[in-house]
Write a structure and sequence with these properties.
alpha/beta, Nucleotidyltransferase, domain 5, six-stranded mixed β-sheet, 7 helices, RNase_H-like_dom_plant
Amino acid sequence: MVPGIKSIWHDVEDFQIPNEVHRVILYHTKVHDEAWRPNEEDRGTSCDNDKAWRKPMLGWIKVNTDGAVCRSSRKAGCGGIIRDNYGNWIKGFVSNLGYASVLSAEIWGIYHGLVTAWNLGFRKVELESDSSQAIKMIQMLREAGSNLRPLQHKISCLLASDWEVKATHIPRNANGCANTIAKHSLASSIGFNMLDNHPSVVVSVMLRDANNSIIHDPVG
């Protein structure tokens, strides 16, 4: 694995809810600066030709995930939404992570999204995130060897399971639902929480996505 990527994975996995908050804030400020810069560039310049959310292919479901970090408190969380090829809500999730970098939150969102889709029995999954760095790191795990850290190993095992997963980087404008839910995670209880019903704050974004999108045709 590329040395720089290996170092970032170390930071992704080693965060924890702190006892000495001031030390953790100083540490994660450094980590955040490293992760935030490419994230902002990704979100501002990519995929200008297709900024709308697209419905998944027939027979597939779509998982959109995102991470969020409060600038003032430094608390982090992630969230995600699973929808069918009509844009209908299937399930969602939030996870309050404590203190973490932006990239950490993005990676944990992807992990929870994959686990949720697998546990619900879906075997054809389109995974989308607006962090190109997170998507690149996930895609690298498909070719990774056996010397993996715990979270890397979990994601690698998920990707190697008996299902089809297409991981794609999308612009932020196409990830509005996941972005809204991720922000919602900052006010949730610590840990992972499944959402059987959609939060009221995401309804308008879901309707916009469903009305503005078409079912993706892989050959058209």
